[in-house]
Write a structure and sequence with these properties.
By secondary structure, the protein is mainly beta. It is built from two helices and 32 strands. Strands 1-32-31-30 form a four-stranded antiparallel beta sheet, with no helix packed on it. A hairpin with a 4-residue loop joins strand 20 and strand 21. It is globular. The termini are far apart.
Length: about 400
Amino acid sequence: MAVTDVSMLRERRKKKKTERFLKKLLIILIIAAAVAAIVLTKDLWYPKLDGILTKIPTPENSAELAEGYFPLSIEGGASYQLKQLDNSVAIVDDSHFFVHNSDGKLIYSEQHTFANPVITVGNKKALLYDLGGKSFGLYSKYKNIYGKNTDDPILLARLGSNDTAAVVTKSDKYPSILMVYDATGKNIFNYRSVSRIIDVTFNPENTGCYITTIGVSGGFITSKMFYYRFDKIDYDESGSPVPVWETENLETLALSVRLYGDNDIIIFGDTVCAYYDRNGNFIGSYEYKRQLVDYSSDGNIAALLFRNDERRSSEVVTIDCLNNTVKEISLDYEVLNLQVSGNTVYMQNKNGIESITALGDKISSVELNTDYDDFCRIDGYVYLLGYDEINRISFN
């Protein structure tokens, strides 16, 4: 009987030990599953959390440079680019692609192999391509979404607000070939142009695009705009897509084409800027009196910068499409570059940053002790681009 009791005791101990082991194993499996779920769903919850964490009240204008992660060091000197990416900044240099939040903290980085990297952005994604090469890729703030190769060298690429990508290449048969891809990288539209495509601009709905080409007419360089739909495509006898509309030749070399106001389009040329409605009807233009130095647009406002080298002064011309007004603003100092944000024009001079209204009324200014090559205003901050570093100040 005693022997039987000892045997039963051993059995009970063994059973309890097994139960404890199974409980521990279950706990470990639950924790592992939770960690795996967190990792696998990071792209769903982290952007929302990141958005909450980065929505910090913006302090008042100050020339005081940000601390913490700033300044951001750049390797390779001035050959880098900075763009706004959602509520963060995307930077590409000769070897890497970086994403930093507004505080300068590194969110994502990846080494690239592009010989001539160029970045273009939409609302929440960035398109990185190799100018003259045959590769491009779509990125979020946290990862590479897809990468693709082309058969021919890339001339330019653009990204729509819904992550639709336009890639223009050149070939032996055509001066330009346009390929459009949806957000997953699927090819949805192709167009072979007998003229050089200089820019591609998506319509507000991303259901079509405005293709701008350059050519020669009467011994002068001219630009022309064509509008194509992706969802309603008609083809001619040769199998080429037929444009919904096209404009007359504009005697200028188009530099950039952008959406303007609610339904308009603006062409920035080297001698004139012209604006059209979304049906391709000519609305108006502004002919330059001096050589163009810089240009920018946002919403209803476009701004042009001209410099008078003899007087060492500048002139800013603003065009308000909402009120159909043109304002010429003379300044007694030299402006290096400008950026339109909302209804405000931000300008950089050798002493600092200044903001004015579209009518030329001064709003605010800050003086800087260090020279910077360029600037970019994003969400109440001004990012100052130096030769090998990026700084940030608060500026509304």
